[in-house]
Design a protein that fits this description.
The protein is mainly α and about 180 residues long. The chain is about 50% helix and about 0% strand. The protein is built from five helices and no strands.
Length: about 180
C-alpha cells in the first residue's frame, strides 16, 4: 500500500527511446547523483538515503527512522493536506495520484550524461516527504477503519469489502456461464 506512493511504483515510460518501457524508471539513466537510474534515485528518497537500513532494526536504526519520521511529519502535518485527501481508502486513487506525479514531474529529469539539476533534486525531496507523509496518514486511516468500529472510516471499509465481494461473486457467476 505504501509502495503506491512512490511515483515510479505507479508509472512507467513508453517512448521511441523505450519502446518496451523503462520499467518504472529502472532503465532511465541519470547522472550527477549516487544513483545511476531514476527509479533508484526515487527509492533513495531523492538521494537522501543511499542504503536501506540494516535488518533486523537495532536501537540506532530505530532512532534514525524516528528522526526522519519526526522531520517529515513536522514539515507535512495532516492539516497541511487538502481536506479529505488523506481519508479516502481507495488504493487505485492513490496509485493514480502517484502516476500523475510521475508524468508531470518525475519524468522531467534529464537523462545521463546531463546531471540532475539541484532544483530538481530539491523538489524531488519535497515530493518524497509529501508522499511519505500521505502514505503514513493513509495507512493510519486504513488501520483505524479496520480495527476501530467507532472510526468514521469503518463503515466505508465495510462497504468497500461488500462491493468487492459482490464483484467477485459476479465474476464467478459469469465464469460458470451465467448472465448478469
Amino acid at each position: 500500500m505504501l509502495l503506491q506512493h512512490q511515483p515510479l511504483h505507479a508509472a512507467t515510460l513508453w517512448s521511441e527511446e523505450f519502446p518496451d518501457s523503462d520499467y518504472g524508471g529502472n532503465l532511465y539513466l541519470i547522472a550527477g547523483v549516487n544513483q545511476t537510474e531514476l527509479h533508484a534515485f526515487w527509492d533513495s528518497g531523492a538521494g537522501q538515503w543511499p542504503d536501506d537500513p540494516a535488518r533486523p532494526l537495532n536501537a540506532s536504526t530505530r532512532a534514525w527512522l524516528d528522526g526522519w519520521s519526526n522531520r517529515i511529519t513536522a514539515l507535512y502535518p495532516q492539516n497541511s493536506f487538502p481536506s479529505g485527501s488523506l481519508t479516502g481508502l481507495n488504493p487505485w486513487a492513490w496509485a493514480s495520484e502517484s502516476s500523475t506525479i510521475a508524468q508531470t514531474f518525475v519524468y522531467t529529469a534529464p537523462q545521463a550524461p546531463t546531471p540532475l539539476p539541484a532544483q530538481y533534486i530539491s523538489q524531488s525531496q519535497q515530493v518524497v516527504f509529501q508522499q511519505i507523509a500521505k502514505g503514513g496518514y493513509r495507512l493510519a486511516a486504513l488501520l483505524e477503519s479496520i480495527f476501530n468500529p467507532a472510526s468514521p472510516h469503518h463503515a466505508v471499509r465495510l462497504e468497500m469489502q461488500a462491493q468487492q465481494l459482490q464483484r467477485q461473486q459476479g465474476a464467478a457467476h459469469t465464469l460458470r456461464g451465467g448472465r448478469n
